[in-house]
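The aim of this short unit is practical: by the end, you should be able to scan a pair of folded records and say something sensible about each. We start with the first protein, listed as its amino acid sequence and then its structure tokens.
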Amino acid sequence: HVATSLPLPLETDCLRPRIDLIVFMIDIKSKYSLKNVEASLTHVDASFFLGRVWFLITGVGRMNCCSVDMNAVWKLGEVYCSPLICCELELEGVRVATAQRLLRILQICAGHIPGVSALFFSKLMMKSADD
């Protein structure tokens, strides 16, 4: 399911499936994108951030068109203890690889991969980004 912002409408609450993962997309070419994500973050329960919130940063292939300060994006990941995935969705191969990566993350967050928890995996991904 895709939403442009949070909170989700209450009238569809009874029809909504369980939420296993939230991926916030930030387009570095749009300041509105970052502001929308920042406003939406306040609607997510703090316990949900334990491995089940990720940030997908798009437009990284065109840093010369950047409207968003990347330091603000990195800080967002740190503050919310959530990993960042950077990609360029305009390239089909990268788009497919990113979709596959997100599906694997979703499988982990939904508990379909034995022996790997969402919290462990996200901390592992954050640690590898630091190295």
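Turning to the second protein, read its sequence before its tokens, just as you did above.
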Amino acid sequence: MVGEEGAFVLGWDEVLTEEELSVTLKVLCMSEEEFKEYKEQDGWEDDSEEEESSPLSNEALSRLKPPCKQLLYDSVLLTLQSYGSDLKAEQDLLNNKEVYEKLSRREQQALHVRYGQKRILHQLLELVQ
């Protein structure tokens, strides 16, 4: 469902792997009975009763049903815990010119990537609270 990487791709304004995330949330938030019924239906892609044709934007994420929001919230928290440091630590490193300049170019780039990833994850936390 989530491809080879096992992850969803989030951007600043929308989910870039929206179809995968929508189907995953829908399935994981179903009761066992609903899942059996859904599985027996022909054509998973053809099911459009609750699907939106627009991208899964940040606004759409904030309007998800509570069980889906909770699932996303918990998933984001687990993802943030997998990092070795928090958002503030990354921000402090970026703001400390003396320490930042001692990092290799590769370490600086990795810092920017981690910081950006964490900012997107924190934004998602706010959207689904």
